[in-house]
Amino acid sequence: MERAIEAKTATVHTSLANLTRYCKAAEQRCQTLEKRLDGMDEIWNARMEQIVEFALAKQTAAATPQGQQRSGDQDDAMGDSPSETNIGHAPSPYFA
Fold it and tell me: Per UniProt, which keywords does this protein have (predicted)?
């Protein structure tokens, strides 16, 4: 009877050790994901700021009568270049 209790106790201790190890590994994965999410959050916020600034600049340009525009093409100053077509998209390293 005593050996059976010792065997069960050993099994419980082994299971507890395994669960503890699994929990620690899961916690590390969660921390890694939280850090990545924080980084993506910062990028998202910066992109949203750019989009809002761009939209406000476009709205201001559209509201300015043609005769009152400064010399030069104002649209160039507001980012209407082909390279800005991906504004609002997260950088590819986060989706690789």
Answer: Coiled coil
> What ranges do the domains of the chain cover?
1-37
Give the whole-angstrom CA distance, residue 46 versus residue 40: 10
Contact 87, 51 (CB under 8 A): yes
- Each residue's pLDDT tens digit, 40-82: 999 999 999 999 999 999 999 988 887 665 555 555 555 555 5
Q: Residue 60: what residue type?
A: T
pTM of this structure: 0.45
CB 74 within 8 A of CB 60: no
